[in-house]
Write a structure and sequence with these properties.
By secondary structure, this protein is an alpha/beta fold. The protein has a single domain, classed as Rossmann fold (3-Layer(aba) Sandwich), CATH 3.40.50. The chain is 33% helix and 29% strand. The chain contains six helices and nine strands. The strands form three sheets. Strands 4-3-7-8-9 form a five-stranded parallel β-sheet, with helices on both faces. Strands 1-2 form a two-stranded antiparallel ribbon. The protein has a two-stranded antiparallel ribbon with strand order 5-6. The longest helix is centred in the N-terminal third of the chain and has 14 residues. The radius of gyration is 17 Å and the shape is globular. The structure holds adenosine monophosphate. Adenosine monophosphate (AMP) binds next to β2, β7 and α6.
Length: 195
Amino acid sequence: MGLLLSTFVQINSIPMQKVEESIKEYLIENIRTIPDFPKPGIQFKDITTLLADKKALQLTSFMLTEPWLEKQVDYIVGLESRGFLFGTNMAQDLNAGFIPVRKPGKLPSDTISETYALEYGEDSLELHSDAFKEGAKVVIHDDLIATGGSASAATRLVERLGGEVIGYSFIMELSFLKGRDSLSKTAPVESIIIL
Ligand code: AMP
């Protein structure tokens, strides 16, 4: 789909920027905001509506993969659970492997763990301790970046195993929470939709 769309755009000399803008508009139309979920004050960005729309599903996949096509990516590391939905597909399109980062107690073999702060309290994420070999180049992916706490914890997990985080990939970014500031200053942060 990604390559087909790129070829169509090139043959017809359509400015890629225009195409990307209309794709983004279409995706925004297909994301639903649920007020006060899971608790009062949170505007929850629901992507189940985007997943159910076959055009939005393909276009999201294309837009997520596109920034990394020319990079050498060994693994997409997807964050539980919505980072699994497009993460495996991205990995296939990039000829890379997929590695899940999960909530505590979900991974069956030996794990390493990192804790991060939530609005109230804290949470942890885990990674299999043999998930990849030292030196692997990794892109961390999730559906949305808010404060960046979970992506930062995932970065620490990858780096503890000797991996190199070469970038971050999100469908959406809540820019007012400045999550990207907490991520590596050397690795690019790619979000399709900046809210
Ligand atoms: P953070 O660690 O603060 O960047 O939060 C990102 C994680 O929390 C992602 O896994 C998101 O799916 C989820 N999340 C945080 N805020 C929202 C929101 N407003 N709508 C949907 N998911 C959210």
